[in-house]
């Protein structure tokens, strides 16, 4: 997440490549924490988070230990259909030290506040292009890669939910052709990239140059 004059760019899924690319392009020192930045989330989970934010019922879903479980080696929020805190030490957070979970919950509430306090023009950045994402999903979660494909129905659901939360949201959806339904090819909000799958997760510096140039030009 980053503030650019009167514009804010906020990652909303599916993975952390969005925040890495923000840090590469604009400088890590300028970025701010957000709820989605280091998570792996399905399109459905993104919609669910936005809907709970709209209803004013999101905070309690991150504030109680019983909402969470370990799925493999990763911390999963059971309130959502695929929301993983991918870079958190879930074993420690759910261990016997209540203070450890309290710090995690406080951090989550702070990130939530950052994410949904944005005013003015907001660009919401969604991507399923992270090179290692499919392998990570298939190896470490109960989910199928099909749950992360961008379809028109999922794109429309994200847009609808976001419009109910943010006053003036704009969108960029980034993916490979093979992971985006053909009916969305050529859509003005969709950026297709030919990025090979690999064990990498940050992407090269400049990968999102086209995305950020579009955002800056529209600001």
UniProtKB/TrEMBL annotation:
Can you say what this protein is called?
A: Uncharacterized protein
Q: Which organism is it from?
A: Breoghania corrubedonensis
